Amino acid sequence: MKLLRPRWRLAVLLILLVLLSAGGAYFALDEPLPTGQTGAGADALARQMQSAVDIAAWQQTGAVRWTFAQRRHLWDRRRGLARVQWDNTEVQLDLWHHTGLALRDGTRMEVADELIEAARGYWINDSFWLNPLAKLFDKGTRRELVVQPDGSDGLLVTYTEGGNTPGDAYLWLVGPTGLPRAWKMWVSIIPVGGLETSWDEWIELETGAKVSLRHRWSRFTLELKDVEGATSLKELTADNDPLAAIASARN
């Protein structure tokens, strides 16, 4: 069985193919990766951005669920467990031990390595879109202060390890309220450098943490839906443990 990459990636690539077919569109859009200054200034801007989204409240968010690209996620951050659902498939992941189990139409699958690997890729991608600001100081990140044409400061974050595609870089642009308003991307899956998408429609979870639901580029939009967070999984789901199977497998 051949599994598709996350659907948003396919959509972005199709859009770019259309652009590239339009003569010099590639050269008009492509931007070189900027360089900036590492050190205290870059770190200070990163912490200001984290403060604007209340990173302390995010750290107290023990469980969160959301939908992205028609994939439904449930993440127990306290126990390092997650569930990814798409179509008739459910995969439960032990994020700490890199194991998982898969069900199709509610039936446990004995051979599921490919599904588990796909779900892990979906989770890495989709949780990054949920709150990449929590990862600004992760191991392997390089932060650079980049002065913009209007004189404002931007934060270039390069992920030198981890994730699905090490080496990807994102230039954060900050709005007047201190919340990020957009980022520009230099990522391996998109041939055009500097593609800018908005970060808007910010909401506040029950815990106080802020997340952005909408990311627009031209007439195209990526959206996070059904986003909810709570201090614990029990508070969020109010029913029996939906991750009991993978929790039991850990024990």
Task: Give an overview of the whole structure.
- The chain is of the alpha+beta class.
- The protein has one domain (34-250): outer membrane lipoprotein receptor (LolB), chain A.
- Helix content is 27%, strand content 35%.
- The strands form two sheets. It has a nine-stranded antiparallel beta sheet, sandwiched between helices. The protein has a five-stranded antiparallel beta sheet with strand order 7-8-9-10-11, covered by helices on one side.
- The protein starts with 6 loop residues before the first helix and ends with a helix.
- Mean pLDDT is 89; it is low at 1-6.
- Kindly report the spatial arrangement of strands forming the biggest sheet: 6-5-4-3-2-1-14-13-12
User: Radius of gyration over alpha carbons?
Assistant: 19 Å
Low-pLDDT stretches:
1-6
N-to-C CA distance: 30 Å
